[in-house]
Amino acid sequence: MIKKITLIIFVLVLFMSTTTAYAQSADLEWTGTQFFSAGDNESKSLEYAGNICVSAYYPNEDSFTHNFEGQPLEDLIGDIVACPTGSDLLGKTIMIVSGDQCLIRKVWDTGCAKGRIDLLVGNSREMNNWGLRNCDIWVVN
Question: For labelling alongside 113, which of 21, 46, 50, 88 has CA 20 to 30 A away?
Answer without folding.
Answer: 46
